[in-house]
Amino acid sequence: MIQEEKIIALSNASIGYKSKSHSVNVVKSDISLYALKGELVALIGGNGVGKSTLLRTIAGFQPSMGGDVLIRGKQVNAYREKELALLMSFVSTEIIRVPNLSVFDLVSLGRYPHTNWFGKLLDEDRYIVEEAIKSVGLKGYENRMVNCISDGERQKAMIARTLAQNTDVIVLDEPTAFLDLSNKYEIVHILHELASEKGKTILFSTHDLTTAIAESDRIWVMLNDSVKQGSPEDLILNGDFADLFHSEHLFFDQEKGDFRIRKQTKRKAIVRGQGIAVDWTMKALERNGFEIVDADTAGDSLAYVTIDVAFPEWTVIWQAQTTKFGNLLTVCRYLNGV
For 301-324, what is the mean pLDDT? Predict the structure, then answer.
């Protein structure tokens, strides 16, 4: 088995901060995690568990409280500022709204660790900036003002800035926090492509577990009393997401790969048919308090729902009456007595 280099590696690390009185406040300790070259790594956890503190410690913005925080085998705080800027770039969760700053100017900020003392861009720098803008799908936006584009476009520009910085490691603190659903998926997909195609190690925090599972190579899970890591599929199969949120009403559905509300079911339904309509019929009935069962487990309060795939139609036998419906909305309203 080939031993791959751990680009980011934490061993028994403690993270936290020093108060104004110089006392040490440890947020979390005994953290042992790593990320390899070409991996997109998602960091997930509940509010206040220390995700931002961990990212800022990895980025060298605040010192670790103990243990090892290594970037390419060297303690992150042992790097000189410019040396680290050539190795790692960081995108905060803060929304950038600077007047009179164009997309090109924002992205070109990533070149300053590579330029001379005056920060003058050479032709090579400009080419790199243009390629970074193109790679995130913003070609044609170069002269637009940053405060006049959408949040999704602005976040793409921030990612382009890190590409222009041309670092092996990119760290992002909740890059999809203020984006709509389509932009969330697009941003994370761009990050995945950058990791796999350009061999970059990309670490980002998120609350969107569905997106993280769909696109990430590795997930770091921060719990109140421990940290875990693995591929999304391994974490699901091992039941590691079950402890992410402690709630009597919320549970992680291993089959569907997402959190769901736990509902008390007093009624049962048998669903017959073929095709994708069967799955969505079951989802609709479960949402309305029905447990989906087989015929041999049936009991009282039982509904029979049959789907005609050729002509979308639902035949419902409920309380000794047979009724036909043309959509699931009316099926559910009928079963709920509306």
Answer: 88
